[in-house]
Design a protein that fits this description.
The chain has one domain: Leucine Aminopeptidase, subunit E, domain 1 (3-Layer(aba) Sandwich), CATH 3.40.220.10. It has 5 helices and 6 strands, in the order ββααββαβαβα. It has helices at about 35-45, 45-50, 90-105, 125-145, 160-170, and strands at about 5-10, 20-25, 60-65, 75-80, 110-115, 150-155. The protein has a 6-stranded mixed sheet with strand order 1-6-5-2-4-3, with helices on both faces. A hairpin with a 7-residue loop joins strand 3 (about 60-65) and strand 4. Helix 3 (about 90-105) runs parallel beside helix 4 and helix 4 (about 125-145) packs across helix 5 (about 160-170). Ligand AR6 binds next to strand 2 and helix 1. Pfam families: Macro. This is O-acetyl-ADP-ribose deacetylase.
Amino acid sequence: MSNSAIEVVQGDITKLRVDAIVNAANTSLLGGGGVDGAIHRAAGPQLLEECKTLNGCPTGQAKITQGYELPARHVIHTVGPVWHGGGQGEDELLAGCYRNSLRLAQEHGLESIAFPSISTGAYRFPLERACGIAVAEVKRFLDAQETVKKVFFVCFSAGDAEVYRKILAEEQ
Ligand code: AR6
């Protein structure tokens, strides 16, 4: 795996022209606030129409749709765990979000994928802990296959981007 396979970007994930952006959704897959709301607004109403056909998504799993009016071709919807203190399987569920999203991308022959910082907003997962899990899962996946070539971590705030860059550098 080359070092440039993973890139941290600060900004709005709805602007990225990649094969798939990942949505930090809830189990209904019918929209919400945060990055979920931003993705549905930018993709337009057809995204909700397709989501209605999916019958929701369990925590830690992922489902794929078209991107509609987004620059991204697809949206991979995953559901992060709500943070309850760490004793309720939160780490493994969050790892599942990254693993299952990447597997879906691979199954669909997608080369580039962008993740928001899943569960670290409304679901209150501690940022550094979530970031460590995200980086570990993405690295393991990139080392094991050749379809997905580029992974972006998209951070809304400069502070979050700094944490991601620090943890990525430590793991090199
Ligand atoms: N681009 C990139 N990152 C963003 C954007 C954006 N446009 N908007 C927000 N973020 P959250 P969660 C960041 O709360 O914790 C929803 O209502 C945000 O700053 O969106 O997994 C769903 O429907 C934070 O760093 O997701 C669920 O009910 C990160 O995205 C619930 O929130 C994740 O924050 C999911 O909560």
